[in-house]
Design goal:
alpha/beta, Glucose Oxidase, domain 1, 8-stranded mixed β-sheet, two-stranded antiparallel ribbon, about 20% strand, elongated, metal ion binding, RraA/RraA-like, RraA/RraA-like_sf, magnesium
């Protein structure tokens, strides 16, 4: 997939995303009519935060007489990418371990997101390298999975991800913003954050919560029709 968005624009989108939390971005996705919340994908450490554009990897089960493949793509991934691995949610083998963590950290990747599991979590925590997955377990994927595609459409937690889509992760999980919708979703999330901050400020100043929410349209912030009612 060829992007028509300039690298400088992509960098600006990443900076804006890092200033927003996944909860606000989730509401902005709802307001945009986009299902971009990755179900049951969580950080291996609650302090992990990341934002970047997807470099996608698709795995399939290895045939009985086929040599398994895990991770040899890493040298070709651009720095700053979020390595986005679709292992179809398999939780009986890992697709990522300490060698890949160290390599990705050394090459300055933004993080890794896996629809599946990883292992060697101690090193990712030590290096503060963000990994988001369905869990962790020590069993290797070597000899059990084979590469099915690079930079192809994948699914993460039920969400379609294309190469170049923007991923944001924090303690609440991962959201995916389609590349063509970055400006709209980020703008909506910035507006939602501003309104929620105003609600909290009003409550601290003595307003009842129901009144502060009414004044700032709290119950409609994530609604697709919000632009028409405010």
């Amino acid at each position: 997939m060829t992007s028509s968005i300039a690298p400088t624009d992509n960098a600006a989108f990443i900076e804006r995303a890092l200033r927003l939390d996944c909860a606000a971005l989730s509401d902005a996705l709802d307001r945009s009519g986009i299902a971009g919340q990755c179900y049951e994908i969580s950080p291996r450490d609650p302090g992990f935060r990341m934002a970047g554009h997807a470099y996608t990897v698709l795995y399939r089960p290895a045939a009985h007489d086929e040599e398994g493949f895990v991770g040899d793509f890493i040298d070709d991934v651009p720095p700053g990418s979020v390595i986005t691995i679709d292992n179809r949610g398999r939780d009986n083998m890992g697709t990522w371990g300490n060698i890949l963590t160290e390599m990705a950290h050394y090459r300055k990747m933004a993080g890794t997101v896996i629809d599946g599991i990883n292992r060697d979590v101690a090193l990712c925590r030590e290096l503060n390298y963000p990994i988001f997955s369905r869990g962790h377990w020590m069993r290797t994927g070597k000899g059990r999975i084979q590469l099915a595609g690079l930079q192809v459409p994948v699914q993460i937690g039920g969400v379609n991800v294309n190469p170049g889509d923007l991923l944001r992760g924090d303690a609440d999980g991962v959201v995916v913003i389609p590349q063509a919708m970055q400006e709209q979703v980020l703008t909506y999330a910035e507006e939602i954050t501003e309104q929620e901050n105003a609600i909290r400020a009003g409550i601290r100043a003595g307003l009842r919560m129901d009144e502060a929410r009414r004044v700032h349209h709290y119950h409609h912030l994530q609604s697709p029709g919000y632009d028409k009612i405010r």
